[in-house]
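Support reply, case 0932

Customer input (verbatim):
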Amino acid sequence: MRVFRALHWGRMNRYWHVLLALFGLFAALFLAFNARPPIRWAVVRGWYSQQGAPTPYRWMGNRLVVPLRAQPTPLDVRLTLASPLWPGRAAPRVTLLADTQPLTSFVVPQLPTTYTITLPIDTMALVVQSTADRAPQGDERYLGIQVFDMSAQAQGLSALALRDAAVAFAGLCLVAAVIGWCLARGYGAIAGLFVLALLIRLWWLRVAPPGFTPEEAASLIDAQSLLLRARDRFGNVLGLAPGWDSAPLLAYIEMPFVAVLGPVPLAGRLVSACAGAFTAPLAYASARRLNLPKAPALLTGLVAAMLPWQILVSRLALPQALVLAAWAATLYLALRFVRRATRRAALWFALVAGPAAYANDTLRPALLFLMIWVILLVLLRHGKQSFARWWPGLALLALLWLPVNYLALLPPADSPSASFVGVSAVALRVPVAPVSNAVPEDLADAMFLSNNPSWISLTLPLMLLGLGFVMWQLSLGFWPLNSRAERMPQAARYEWWIVVGAALGGLLALWLVPGPTTALLLAPQFVLCVGAGATVIEWASQRVAPEQWQRVLSWGSMALLAVFLLWPWARWLARDLMDGTPPAGANTQNGLLEASALAASYAAQADEVWIDTDTTVAPALYLLAAQPHPLGREAPAPSLMRPYRFISLAAVPRELPPLEVVPDVQGQTSFVLQRWEHDGRQIILLRRMPVQ
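Our regenerated output:
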């Protein structure tokens, strides 16, 4: 017993600083969570962008929803409101609600007036309702009241902060344990690159990019339909449709997220963020497989993690994110297969390249070309006798590609029933061009990519240097014109020829199906050439330095390159993505999901709900996504049977009193719900507000 006590206190005496550091971390987390404002500012909805000088204010529509962090203590809220009047406008009456429970109602005077209200325990949202009128002097907005100030303060310490601190502490300990395990087994660089890339893609994912594209809505509704009845929204079994454009892989992967969260934007964007984060460790692993030194390989992974256009693709629930990740994984496993030519390597290559054919139709020509190229290289390096080892992988790949190849031979046909929603397939159709060939152009403008060409100008010289170096070494590898020690090894030559084949496959797909999506197939080769260029710089720095300084110069040159390459991208992230929500165009249909939810809530009070098809794309998908999530509940499956109609509202009068005004996330004009009496019927109209 004495020995045990001695050991016990000896260990405590030895590691007391670790326990103190853990306690300090928990206390810091608690203080940080307790200092959070109760108002969730990033998701406040219903007001326009800030205006006014020197005293700033915001106009709201008819409904301001202020989400709160649920508090186990009462919450004191201070509001400073005003209500300017113009000819023909009556003084608006404001009603305050705690979630759905009315609290008070009053008329707001013209001058700013401060009100204080105490919200009940566990209130999730403060709702401010007001009448809204068309503004005078050519302003197309529907305006309610002005909000000059809004703040909230909990009465006492929050037990919620203690819970959140405990969860965060446990999560950090788990992450530290996983990273320690990876470091002990030589996977520290891979784990670090994945965590970095994932954090960049998850940060502010709820609000940036803003809006909800029709393509995202389509994939999520397909995932929900597959969960409910094993068919997509058109009635195709397992989402496999006749024709070339059958690509259900994204919907398959989204199914678990939709089962938990419902068909909301976050469910799909989590999939894209995780898929995009894998490109960074895959780039590093491919670079090491190609015999690049560790420092340039790390730079390769950092470039893949922080390229702005790769981040943009990874933050939207579009097939492009899967194309990028699937192509990078296929390339890495092709490198592994050519080097080893074993049955296991062939099976792993087939298990990734097979499902990748269902990610996007533009990926299939590149996959087919790469498969033929890889088989030829394997036969050249290992001989015909190696076929006996790896033929099961080829058979598995053919089996996985069989359904999509069979369906590609059938003529395209839409299911006429669309029984999942009870509307025609036309209402659920998304235009083909934005889906398969492009990230919406206005999204690139929204993320400030078009105005910041520095992301390519800094990497292009390094990529060209690396490309020239690789082609020079490949030429010397096949013609014995060089006997120096730095000649490329035999194994590396074959593997670099795989990179060349992947680039040729991407160019072939780009020629057959042109568009930015296909251009993503050149991304892994691009970052690998950047790594090769960094290798040339490292080799040059070592040539001019004494032997004892070579390692320092190697890592120092890579660190300097990383600063020059990554600093502009870090500024872009901090300025345009993290600290502010960038503007977005009509392709995101910003605000349509919220407006569709309001339209569904009014459906029982009207004979019909008409949704404008002139100013919206595939509105039926948004209406489906806005309805209550049926999985695990007693609610029936989503249905768009009557009273919904999707028609042009060009002939319907615009000057109708508003029921609901929905500004978008940036506080710009978005959508409006109106009531119209026509032929003795009460009709709810959903249309886009005129742009100022």
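We compared this against your earlier run and they match. Two observations from our side: DSSP finds 24 helices and 15 strands in the chain. The first strand starts at residue 45 and ends at 47. Please reopen the case if you see a mismatch on your end.
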